[in-house]
Amino acid sequence: MSGQRVAVTGVGQTKYQATRGDVSMAGLVREAAVRALADAELDWADIDAVVIGKAPDFFEGVMMPELYLADALGATGKPMLRVHTAGSVGGSTAIVASTLVSSGIHERVLAVCFEKQSESEAMWALSLPIPFTPPMHAGAGGYFAPHIRSYMRRAHAPEHIGILVALKDRQNALKNPYAHLHEHGISYESIEESIMLWDPIRYAETCPSSDGACAVVLSSESVADRAPRPPAWIHATAMRSEPTLSADRDPVLPVASTDCAAALWAEAGITNPREEIDCAEIYVPFSWFEPMWLESLGFAGPGEGWKLTEQGVTALDGDLPVNMSGGVLSSNPIGASGLIRFAEAAQQVRGLAGDHQVEGARKALGHAYGGGSQYFAMWVVGSEKR
Amino acid sequence: MREVAIVSFAQSRHSRAVEDLNEVEMLMPVTRAALDQAGLEIADIGFTCSGSTDYLAGNAFSFVSTLDGVGPWPPIQESHVEMDGAWALYEAWVKLQTGSIDTAFVYSYSKASSGDLPKVLSRQLDPYAVGPLWLDSISIAALAASAALDAGSVTLEAMAEVAARSRRDALANNEYAQLRFDRPADEIMAEDALVGALRRSDCPPISDGAAAIVLAAGDRVRELSEHPVWIRGIDHRIDPMALGVRDLTDVPSARLAADKAGVAAAPVDAWELHAPFTHDELLLRRALAVPDDAVVNRSGGALAANPMLTAGLIRLGEAARQIAAGEAHRTVAHATQGPALQQNLVAVLEGDHS
């Protein structure tokens, strides 16, 4: 990446669940931050700046909640930034925080993302009437279902691929103590029989609605060299956005996504991501987005993504494990979901992913997207400096 | 630090309610004007960053629509802060420091007219303890003003002078401002109180508006501007929100940001302080050690036009404009957001050395 080297030296997550009624928003973000600081063996006073990200403020009903959360995150007297770039915000937050270090301005930056969906109702927040715009009242699933149908047609994908993704991710989640959904009885049949919400998206192929927070400590090279646990070195970051209303736009295979991936691989010095990336945490809120993003990211050619899923390549013991943590399909505190992808990628190359660790992972992708697939944020982290 | 310059600045004519345009339509002429000043298209820009809040737009992801207005096709490197555009400018400045880009585009906007602004701003408060009381923004300002009056930090007479001077300066110097008139301080002293000690003239107008700035670094600066305005220092800090935790007669985060930005290193020709209420300017003058005879808010400041999440970015633009116009050589711009001057940004701007 441009500028000075940056590494992840601390990661902290809360348990994700439908309702964290035991804590306020301040308690929730502090829980993740305290764990990240403990991992990095740093104290609040060591942190130079705080960057916080979350999805729309209507999700909790608090306007610019970072103002209220400043002291809970130890930001008093420090610089604090609030990032909001739609569903990709978790990734964007990590990238903005990394530039605070790569620019040479700060040595140790705390990036925190959260969503406490139980405070409000995301479906409602996404369906507020906008003047001169026809109301959809469909939430995210209704918006993305036609994109998925289009992908299935264009890729000649068989109907059961989505079920395979959901089964894999929910089974991976059983190995992740922080995951929201721990469905021990889940099976191919139980997913197939679950109610069809937005054809072709079944209930069991949909992300849950979660409360939770994730935090990472980003450190300069000199700090990371002395870190108590292995750092995850950031090899590349990339962000891209494209318009919502453009006749040129293909939401199934967005140019912003392919451009973002191309810039990412170039900066990371990767020419063949399928061979060189050991595992990936990809933003998959609805099962079918796994094969769609595999193609968009360059892991598979057009129409080939679903075959990787079907062949078990993306399984935890496959050649390119995807969403080892259980992914967004198993935990979705929306504003944090991107940062969780980035943090889980870091944990893999640090060798600290626990029961869902991919043996010998040296380079990993963290990926997030948002809006109606106009917003992308990605990073590559590695166990070695680049 | 890499030398970064402001090479263009544009703003809308701020008004109480822009009723015939949506946010995108209100913003587009402003972003176009800022790009035109620099002779750039969006495809020439290395990084774009905007500031706005869904709570004023009244819908989730409102910035997604406004991004369409800048025409991000082919796709662009872009980010957004749910903060005043001054902080979007800071994020862009950081990106320029990494050396990965040479130009950045910053914009912000808001239409407070869509709702009841003082009530909407109460949604910023601690949602468990204070928010349910619907303590509105004018009442919070009145609490701070009372504390400052009780402590002797400000006087009603000095507040009236700030109110009179701001609208008078806007009349003389700023065609974009909303409140432009000459109402003397003694008339303001005769006004009835609105909330607590605050009179209507002590309060900012409610404004709809937009602003945009182009930044450049390296060789691009000279290509884009004959009169670049250099950002010599920029820093921002935050205080806790809870009113009971803070000394409302002081602004420690503003003072700290000014120290870090290097304000005291040389004399300042003019200040643009983002002071929504009259007592805010007096508190900021103390916190930033502004000399009594200093030129403050020649533009009229936020008391003459206060588009939320944009008035801070406008301070940077106005402080730069004075340098570009040859009215000043070294200026200080300040931005604030949050209840009672909670979060503050300070930038030191300079023209070329002659």
Topology:
The complex is a heterodimer of chains A (386) and B (354).
Chain A: E1 6-13, H1 25-40, E2 49-53, H2 66-69, E3 80-83, H3 89-102, E4 108-116, H4 122-125, H5 139-155, H6 161-173, H7 188-193, E5 196-198, E6 201-202, E7 211-220, H8 221-225, E8 232-241, H9 255-268, H10 273-276, E9 279-281, H11 289-296, H12 305-310, H13 334-350, E10 363-370, E11 375-382
Chain B: E1 4-11, H1 23-38, E2 47-51, H2 54-57, H3 62-70, E3 78-81, H4 85-97, E4 103-111, H5 117-121, H6 137-151, H7 156-173, H8 185-189, E5 193-195, E6 198-199, E7 208-217, H9 220-224, E8 229-238, H10 252-261, E9 270-272, H11 278-287, H12 311-324, E10 330-337, E11 343-350
Parallel strand pairs in B: 2-3, 2-4, 9-10
Antiparallel strand pairs in B: 1-7, 1-8, 4-7, 5-6, 8-11, 10-11
> How much helix, percentage-wise, in residues of chain B?
25-40%
**Largest interface, C-beta closer than 8 angstroms, per-chain residues:** A-B, 65 and 62 residues
Question: How much β-strand is present in the residues of chain B?
Answer: 15-25%
Tell me the structural class of chain A.
alpha/beta
How large is the radius of gyration of chain A? 19 Å
Oligomerization: heterodimer
**Count of individual beta strands of chain A:** 11
Major sheet summary line of chain A: 9 strands, mixed
**What is the rounded distance between the termini of chain A?**
8 Å
Shape assignment of chain B: globular
Residue share in β-strands of chain A: 15-25%
